[in-house]
Amino acid sequence: MIDKFCEYLTNRIRKEMPEIGDEQAEAIKYGIQLIIGEIPKVFSLFIIGAILGLWWQTLIAFWILLPYKCVSGGFHLKTHIGCFIGTNLIYCGNAYLSSSLELNIYIKLMFIALNLIIGIIMINKYAPADTINLPILTKKERSIKKALSYIFLAINMILAVIVPNSTISNLLIFGTAIQTFSITRMAYKLTKNEYGYEVYISEGM
Question: 124-156: string of b/e by CB count within 10 Å (b at 16+)?
Answer without folding.
Answer: eebbbbbbbbebbeeeeeeeebbebbbebbeeb
